[in-house]
Amino acid sequence: MKKCVKIGILLACAAGILTSCNEKKKTDSDKVTLTVWESTNGPDEFIQRAGAIFEQTHPNIKIKFQNVELGDTTGQIALDGPAGKGADIFAAPHDRLGSLVAGGHVLATVNPDEVKSRALASCSKALTYDGTMYGYPVSAETYALFYNKNLISENEVPKTWEELAKWTTDFNAKNPGKYGFVMDVGNAYYTILFTTSDGNRLFGKDGTDRKNSNINAPASVNGMKFFQGLRSALPVPASDLDTATVDGAFQSGNAAMHITGLWNVVPFEKAGIKFGVAPIPALPGNTEPAATFSGTRAMFVSAYSDHPAEANEFASFLMSNEMQKLRFEITGALPSIDIALDSPYAAGFIKQLEYAFPMPTLPEMSMFWESMNSASKNIWNGADVKTELDACNASMVGK
Question: 3-class DSSP state for residue 2?
């Protein structure tokens, strides 16, 4: 009998130990760390502050920011994801969606109807691929014409590119060491605007024509020839007109006009520049502002995440009114939802968005950037326009 009692006690103890271990294991497993990839200079601060707020109501979740720049996340997740060391959530521009889906790197949005009901229509469209929505939009963007009010009055701001070229030439002659106009002439994100005359669009009206990129269509060739002619008003080689240099020229008060986006509002304000924002001038033969790329910055849930439910919850949280207002305050980027903004610059961008079109999400876009960046630089420096655009087209559609 005593032997049976002892065995019973031992079994009870063992059961207690197992129960205790199971409870500890369960508690430990409930602790979730979500790694989030984002860029520096604003988006990083947003993620860190948003994460701290989210953690207050989700004590079992830790948000860990890791710097991977926006342009690098798509390539990085393809390498790190399968190896089990990638992000749970990462930022990427919507034009990379085709490549991300084709590679199996992202999960579909778990609550697409709710996201679509809250997001701007352009953002919802940008994140829908083959009828399925992926990711959560956190900002909408396009670019517009910034102008320094100390160098050019609002009434003088050109409505057409011909007017801009003439005004710039006159200004440069009267103001040695300053520029009437600057832009990153080797960046396809901006130079695409010169190809959009008369409704010409990259990969067609809906951005889905994989057989015809239209980058070497007659409207594109004529537009890029005009772009090349601007070199007479801005006699600087492409290598000296990169983004950092032209941003610096405007930020230091040495440029009257500059094409850039809302992300530069905060840096320009901090630099003490008094500026306004206007729509992009009309191309030759057109009466409306030139069409520009519109972009949607999204947070995608990695297909390799061990915590997809929690990752989706945090990504969705970033679309809340509170978080969208916080992101605008920190980064200056337009919210992805329809909320009122206290900004003297928002109107200029919202006006330009009326003439903007979403960057195509086709996988061929991965070839567009490098080829069109190169073509833009070469054209600015004097290369044959048709030859350059034909080569750009061939790199995307193979003909």
Answer: helix
Q: What is the CA radius of gyration of the chain?
A: 26
C-alpha distances in angstroms, 178 versus 184, 237, 257, 272, 301?
16, 16, 11, 17, 46
What is the biggest distance separating any 2 CA atoms in the chain, rounded to whole angstroms? 110
C-beta separation of 14 from 3 below 8 A: no
Those residues whose C-beta lies under 8 Å from the C-beta of residue 196, and which sit 6 or more positions away, are 219, 223, 283, 290, 291, 292, 357
What residue has token string 């749970």?
88
Is beta strand 356-358 parallel, antiparallel or unpaired with respect to 292-301? parallel
Predicted confidence (pLDDT) per residue in 309-358, tens digit: 999 999 999 999 999 999 998 988 889 998 888 888 888 888 898 898 88
Cβ atoms of 140 and 122 closer than 8 Å: yes
Of 386, 80, 75, give the one whose Cα is nearest residue 218.
386
What is the rounded CA–CA span in Å between residue 318 and residue 65? 14
Number of Cβ within 10 Å of residue 72's Cβ equals: 14
Rounded CA-CA distance 140/327 in Å is 12
Cα distance between residue 139 and residue 353, in whole Å: 13
Enumerate the β-bridge partners of residue 132.
Answer: 129
| Dihedral over Cα of 120, 126, 130, 135: its sign | negative
pTM exceeding 0.85: no
What tokens were used for 250? 């405007």
333 vs 42: CA distance, rounded Å: 10
Continuous segment of H or E residues that includes residue 64: strand 61-67
